[in-house]
Amino acid sequence: MRIVFATKNRGKVREAGEKLKEFGVEIIPLDEIAEVEAPEETGETFCENAYQKATYYARKLKLPVLAEDAGLEVETLKGRPGVYSSRFAGENATDEENNRKLIEELKKRGVDSSPARYVSFFFLAFPEGMGLWSEGEVRGKVITEPRGSGGFGYDPLFIPEGYTKTMAELPLEEKNRISHRGKAVEKLVWLIEKVKGF
Question: Of these residues, 31, 69, 112, 155, which one is catalytic?
Fold first, then answer.
């Protein structure tokens, strides 16, 4: 099965693609299919944003489209950055800028770590209108000293529960096994298999 992945984030394509390949699903990055104007992300939840993107592109491209919205929720920051994770430091902010902003916000509150969780929400939309969704999470804590060069986003600051290493210090295979994205993809594949069986 071939699915268009509505993202320009190569890190997401690599992570989800590796996981889906195990189940015979091939991911095609959106920019390899067509130049389509992106929809505005107006959702207030990860679910709403993933749904908006997937259904928009599925209608435009007449192909099955997978979209994900994911982010980091930090307890000390009352759930922020949440749906604004990729633009925490402003529109078009880099990972480094977002990480710096997170560190500043934690230090402002006099803490050098906080309980946090990564959340991932996938929506797979079909041109005929049907859709499937799945979600995953990984709990842990964020720190104010970046460590590791792998991964992307807030990975250098996030230590999963039961680990002493940050996500950015883990090999990709290990990260995929425990990550919010990996868990959401596994659930999605299970749903795809169920639908195929009908």
Answer: 69
